[in-house]
Amino acid sequence: MDINPESISRYCESMSTCPSPLTEELAVFTREHVAMSVMLSGPLVGSFLGFLVSLLKARCVLEIGTYTGYSALCMAERLPVDGHLITLDINRETTDIARRFWGRSEGGKKIELRLGDAMETLAVLPGPFDLVFIDADKPGYPNYLEACLPKLSPLGVIVADNALFSGEVVNPVTATRNGQAVAAFNDLVRNNPQLESVLLPVRDGLNVIRRRA
Ligand SMILES: C[S@@+](CC[C@H](N)C(=O)[O-])C[C@H]1O[C@@H](n2cnc3c(N)ncnc32)[C@H](O)[C@@H]1O
Fold it and tell me: What CATH number has the domain bearing residue 196?
């Protein structure tokens, strides 16, 4: 399903404040040299996440799913000097690429990578986090939400990527396992009376969640 026609996506990107040229260089490198580059969240999501970091005056950010470090860099570049971003992944190879690019900017030096299964790492992270970006394995999303909610700062926000899963969520019967998992996650969020959320059709969908005031 074509959620966002290419021309509209390009227009939105060109009318938005871009992440840095280094993030673009990282995206190009990833597309040319790394398998599964479709996993890159891309410039519009990167701009939106950076915008949220500024808007929330975030100091401590958590990311679940690093890949080659694109979204982490987009967020870290917008953190204040004493800001910190912790990002979790299981893949040493892709995160080695991330580290190489992060080392080239001041923003990147605010990033701490924790290698290992995200749920195991989350168990030992105290928080609080002002912004959490969930972008790892889709069946894990409910567990990540549950683990992150108690670690969210009072005005903290959680953003879950791929919330539309190429449109599969509108028809869970024909959806893949991952599409069904995302649809179930969206239902879980929507039916939790303690949460408020808005599902935005940005790229592959962003579910933006916070605790009700
Ligand atoms: C969609 S990619 C992340 C993309 C990245 N946020 C970006 O925008 O460039 C998902 C990542 O989650 C990682 N991942 C999958 N399952 C995981 C798990 N159980 N624990 C930690 N990381 C996991 C994968 O290794 C992969 O790098």
Answer: 3.40.50.150
Does 65 sit in the ligand 1 pocket, CB within 6 Å?
yes
Please state whether the predicted TM-score (pTM) of the whole model is above 0.85.
yes
Taking the CA atoms of the chain, what radius of gyration do you get in angstroms?
Answer: 16
Tens-digit pLDDT profile for residues 65-104: 999 999 999 999 999 999 999 999 999 999 999 999 999 9
1 within a domain of the structure (yes/no): no
**Residue 81: inside a domain, yes or no?**
yes
Question: Do the domain assignments include residue 190?
Answer: yes
- Among 68, 89, 134, 206, the mutation site with the greatest number of ligand 1 atoms within 8 A of its Cβ is 89
| Cβ contacts of 139 within 8 Å, gap of 6 or more | 177, 178, 181
**Domain region containing 185:** 6-211
